[in-house]
Amino acid sequence: MIFRTPFILPLLYPKLIWRIPTSEDIIYLTFDDGPVPGPTDFVLEQLDKFNAKATFFCIGNNVIQNESIFRKIVEQGHAVGNHTQNHKKGWGTPNDEYLNDVIACQKTMKATTLFRPPYGRIRRSQIKQLDNYKIVMWDVLSYDYSNAMNRDRCLQGVIKATRKGSIVVFHDSYKAEKNMTYALPRFLDHFTQNGYKFESLSELEENA
Ligand SMILES: [Zn+2]
What we know:
The structure is a single chain. By secondary structure, the chain is of the alpha/beta class. The chain has a single domain (27-206), classed as Alpha-Beta Barrel (TIM Barrel), CATH 3.20.20. The chain is built from 9 helices and 8 strands. Strands 1, 2, 3, 6, 7 and 8 form a 6-stranded parallel β-sheet that branches. Strands 4-5 form a two-stranded parallel sheet. Strand 1, helix 2 (39-49) and strand 2 form a beta-alpha-beta unit. Helix 2 (39-49) runs parallel beside helix 8 (177-193) and helix 7 packs parallel to helix 8 (177-193). The radius of gyration is 16 Å and the shape is globular. It starts with 7 loop residues before the first helix and ends with a helix.
């Protein structure tokens, strides 16, 4: 499995955000597919413990069902982004249906200008329709959701692939829980001990 995004993708899709170029020791953690009771609470606890800020790309329907957890994310100073209302895959979904699902999520979450396409699958014509959003992809994928991944490989892979300015993807979901609850605290501990800080993408949002 390739943890680091192949360099060709940012060249093919330069308008999308893959990494934040910086000379500082900063990592941008992102969590997709929440909020849900359990995994999201775990993530918030760990971030608090390490004084880390992160960005949560939420599914609108999960926000509706777990509004108090969503509020907790915002109150604790993390950034939030749109991940569609129903976790739509851009490829194979008609553009108007896709856009409507993004708008529905936007209405649920209120203000955010950050968007991440579910599965990383989005067509160029859909990117064009979403030009009022900052579309955030990633530099490092943890594969925490994968049945083929074990927790130690997940941790080692994500540590090796992460560099200054990396945007790293974990999932606050039930599917990822087994690997994520193992890898995340150890990842935070490893990079904290090496002098890294963890920041949210809120600045990106402000500059939209
Ligand atoms: Zn997702």
